[in-house]
Amino acid sequence: MRILVSVLCLEKAGSHVLALSLASAMAERGHQLFLFNQGEQLVDSGMVAQYLRPEIPVIGMDSYPVLNAFCWKLNGLLKRLGVKASFHEYCKTLLLFYVVRRYKIDLVHSHELLVGTSRLVQLSRRIPLVVTDHGGYSMLIKMGDRSFTPYANLGSAIVAVSEYSRHLLEQDASDVAVDSEALKKTGARIIAADFQAEASSLRHSGKLVTKVPLTVPVYTIYNGVQVHQGELPARATIRQRLNIPATTLVFGMIGRGTAQKGWEYALRAYMQLKEQLPAQLMAFICMGAGPVLDELQKQVGASHSDIHFIGSVDDPHSWMPACDIGIMASCFSEGLPLSIIEFYEHGIPVVASTLGGIPEIVQPKDGTPGGLLVSMNSDATPRIEHLVEQMSVYATDSNLRIQHGVAAKHIRETFGMAACAEKYERLFQKVLAEKDTRK
């Protein structure tokens, strides 16, 4: 198969790590892969180099620098003349059609939502299109917005990364508080700050009132995560580098430095826990970059030497072995966070928000938990008192921590990239076979 993978940008995010890793895994299975980056100005080159096989071309407007420069100049001129539409974005859409035609693409795999403003909507009538929903549709449903359904139905299939998301899309999850104004307020703030396609759908949803049911088939495929290759630094070496004593209980958290990831709640809970357990040496390693983390570092960095702001990391496995407990204090919505699985690889249990697919990997129905769940407030933020309580459970019960750490390693084995790629391959073959049948 000749598969075009489409992403809105290549900034550091779990969804983009999956897009790159899965593309590489599909190439290893003998398929020809191409990656179309719609946000050519937003690229984390370290992430791309780490997860994408070098023979897979990344195509964007910057692949044609002379054309790109011309389009930007003409775009600026048209703006000054009062033209509201972006000529550069129009050219980007033409480039997408050109790529599909030139490379004889059989199927497009999108890691962005199909909503009214998506350029992929125009492509969906011409070629099979499979969309992986990393939690974006769940966000819109929680906000009471189902205006995306006519556009989602134009695709060939939706891949939900958790059973929670699949049930929500199929309207089985009737317990979701879509009528909570507090939840919607949190969601509006988070979506506006960090989720382009979802924000665009919300802005335009008032123009489209629809009761169209979702008819596109929805399949659950859990995210796969590559096993770390190469030698890891010793736990003692990492701690020595950060000046963390050997007997210290170390919490760790990784993610984008945005409001959705709940950094403020995690650090507030950590500082309350220190007050509750003054005899226990503790440290907190923050792995990530973004506006919220920048502000928190200004607030607490100088006065709390036990909180370590590492910044953006290309390889989280170089820091995770120093941790005893992973934290995932997300707000409003989550898909299936790769960072939890990465912590599991080191036998590190997690304390995580009860959101999205998180319960499915933290407390699976058929095994010992790999962590503890935190209950949520009505505004879909983690309950601080419960977050502190769950962190305290691990801080004071090393036997339970070890037991859950062993279980975490076992759970991690079910999220291999090879199995994930095989499931996507079967789905893509099914979609193409159904297309041939309809001819």
Please give a structural write-up:
- It holds the Pfam family Glyco_trans_1_4.
- It comes from Hymenobacter crusticola.
- With 439 residues, the protein is α/β, with parallel strands linked by helices.
- Mean pLDDT is 92; it is low at 172-177.
- The protein has helices at residues 14-28, 45-51, 65-80, 87-102, 120-123, 136-142, 149-152, 163-169, 181-194, 196-205, 235-241, 263-276, 291-300, 338-345, 358-362, 384-396, 398-412, 417-438; strands spanning 2-7, 32-37, 58-59, 107-110, 129-133, 157-160, 218-220, 249-254, 282-287, 307-311, 325-328, 350-353, 371-374.
- Strand 12 (350-353), helix 15 and strand 13 form a beta-alpha-beta unit.
- The relative contact order is 0.12.
- It is built from 18 helices and 13 strands.
- The longest helix is centred in the C-terminal third of the chain and has 22 residues, at 417-438.
- The chain has two domains: 2-224 and 417-438, Rossmann fold (3-Layer(aba) Sandwich); 235-415, Rossmann fold (3-Layer(aba) Sandwich), CATH 3.40.50.2000.
- Helix content is 44%, strand content 13%.
- The strands form two sheets. A seven-stranded parallel sheet has the order 3-2-1-4-5-6-7, sandwiched between helices. A six-stranded parallel sheet has the order 10-9-8-11-12-13, sandwiched between helices.
- Helix 6 (136-142) runs parallel beside helix 10, helix 12 crosses helix 16 and helix 14 (338-345) packs across helix 17 (398-412).
